[in-house]
Specification:
This protein is an all-beta fold. The chain has 1 helix and 24 strands. The chain has one domain (3-275): Neuraminidase (6 Propeller).
Length: 287
C-alpha cells in the first residue's frame, strides 16, 4: 500500500477528532518525513496523490481498495475545524484521482477513466480532466482538449501561475514521458519534452512544478544514484528557462522502496509524497 508521508499526529479514539489549524492540524515535521494524519488520511489503504488547496483550507487525496476504484476524498475547514474526509461530489463512480489544482484554487485536475458522455463505456486510457468550483462545491468534470489529451494515456497535472501545465504522456515522440504545454492566448500550446528542456535522458514522471516555475520535483527510476526503485528528484530554474541537472533528493526522502506522487505545500516549504516503505523498521514494505 502507499501512504502519504510528511507530518504525524495521532487521532483520538472514538469520534472523529477536532482538527484545527493548517495541514489538518498536524504537527509540522523537521527534515525527516513522517506519516501524514495517521488514522485520518493515512490508513494503509492506498492513500496517494495529496492535493492541498492554495489557501490551505481544503485538502484532497485519492484512495482505493479491492472493492472500490481510485476515488477522490475531500476535507475542508468549516468554522476553523476540519471536516471528516468524504468522497468528493464528482468522484466515487468511476476511476478518478486528483492530481493538481490551479493557482487560484478554482479548478481541480483529475486523472480519470470516466466516459466523455454519461451512459457511455468508461475510457480505456486515463486522460486529464478539469472540474471547476461552483460556490461551496464542485461542478462536473470535463476532459481537457488536445494537445493535452490524446488517444494514449495522459497523466498528472501540475500548473504554474500563468496556466502552463506539466504532465506525463505515453504518446509517441515524447521521450521520458514528461512534457509541458503553455497557456497562450486562451489555449494550450503544442507540448514540449521535459527531457529536452532539462537536457537529460532519464525518465521524468509525476512532475510537480513550483507555481513560479522556480523548480520542479519529479519521479524517475533505474538511475545510478537511485536508492531503490522510484526516487524523487529536483531541478532548479537558473533563469530564462535554463534548468540545473536533476538532483536525487537524498536518503531522507528516498529509500529502497518506491517513492511516488510528490506535491508541494502551498508555501513551497514542505512536500507530500507517497511511499511503500514499511511503517516501522521491522516490517516488510507495503504492497
Amino acid at each position: 500500500m502507499l501512504v502519504i508521508l510528511i507530518f504525524s499526529n495521532c487521532p483520538r479514539k472514538g469520534d472523529f477528532p477536532v482538527l484545527k489549524g493548517p495541514y489538518l492540524g498536524q504537527k509540522p515535521p523537521g527534515t525527516t518525513p513522517q506519516i501524514f494524519a495517521p488514522g485520518i488520511v493515512s490508513k494503509g489503504e492506498n492513500e496517494i496523490l495529496a492535493i492541498p488547496s492554495p489557501d490551505g483550507k481544503e485538502f484532497f487525496y485519492s484512495t482505493k481498495d479491492s472493492t472500490h476504484p481510485l476515488t477522490v476524498m475531500h476535507t475542508k475547514q468549516k468554522n476553523g475545524i476540519w471536516t471528516r474526509p468524504q468522497v468528493a461530489s464528482f468522484s466515487g463512480k468511476y476511476y478518478n484521482g486528483a492530481v493538481g489544482i490551479s493557482y487560484g484554487g478554482s479548478k481541480l485536475y483529475l486523472n480519470s477513466l470516466r466516459p466523455e458522455k454519461e451512459g457511455d463505456e468508461p475510457l480505456e486510457c486515463q486522460n486529464i480532466w478539469e472540474v471547476e468550483r461552483k460556490g461551496d462545491d464542485w461542478g462536473n468534470p470535463r476532459m481537457l482538449p488536445p494537445p493535452i489529451n490524446s488517444d494514449k494515456r495522459d497523466l498528472g497535472a501540475s500548473l504554474t501561475k500563468d496556466g502552463t501545465i506539466y504532465f506525463n504522456t505515453t504518446r509517441e515522440g515524447v521521450q521520458g514521458g514528461g512534457c509541458r504545454s503553455k497557456w497562450i492566448n486562451g489555449k494550450y500550446s503544442e507540448i514540449e519534452n521535459i527531457q529536452e528542456l532539462l537536457n537529460i535522458e532519464m525518465p521524468v514522471i509525476e512532475i510537480d512544478i513550483d507555481p513560479d516555475e522556480n523548480f520542479m520535483v519529479f519521479v524517475s527510476f533505474n538511475q545510478e544514484d537511485s536508492y531503490g526503485g522510484f526516487d524523487l528528484y529536483v531541478s532548479f530554474n537558473k533563469g530564462n528557462d535554463q534548468w540545473t541537472k536533476p538532483l536525487n533528493m537524498g536518503n531522507r526522502i528516498n529509500t529502497s522502496a518506491n517513492e511516488h506522487f510528490p506535491t508541494l505545500s502551498p508555501d513551497g516549504q514542505r512536500i507530500y509524497f507517497g511511499s511503500d516503505r514499511p511503517l516501522t523498521g521491522g516490517e516488510k514494505p507495503l504492497k
